[in-house]
Amino acid sequence: MAALRYRRFLKLCEEWPVDESRGGRDLGAFLRQRVAQAFREGENTQVQDPESCDHMFDSLSRINSNFYREKGYRYNFQLFSKYPRIQDTSFTEVTAEEYRMVLATDSLKQMEEMKKGMWTRLKEKFNAKSPQDGAKD
User: Fold this and answer.
1) Which keywords fit this entry according to its UniProt record (predicted)?
2) Which sequence spans correspond to the domains of the chain?
């Protein structure tokens, strides 16, 4: 039974997208790391709490498949979204693609640089050691 759980989690990891632009802050990469930790022995790993493991898999699977947005419930043989969305934007009118661009690691580094004041940037510039200074030590 542990082998079945392990294979299910591996398949979920294959399906889960990894956003390389987030550099260490991506949910897909984190999921892969946690599965590797939880199933260190692969198919031979003994699961301590099978119910919790199955519940976690079901929850992650629903997130990955956009269950609550695209699927939901059936009524009279029709499929209705549990949480329908009128628009693909948030209250700020920003699209998901724009959020991805802003949350990319490069964009966050640029914003951090912009936050620094003029004096901080000048101090960093003049306090930086040149390669010649390091050779004298």
Assistant:
1) Mitochondrion, Mitochondrion nucleoid, Transit peptide
2) 1-85, 87-137
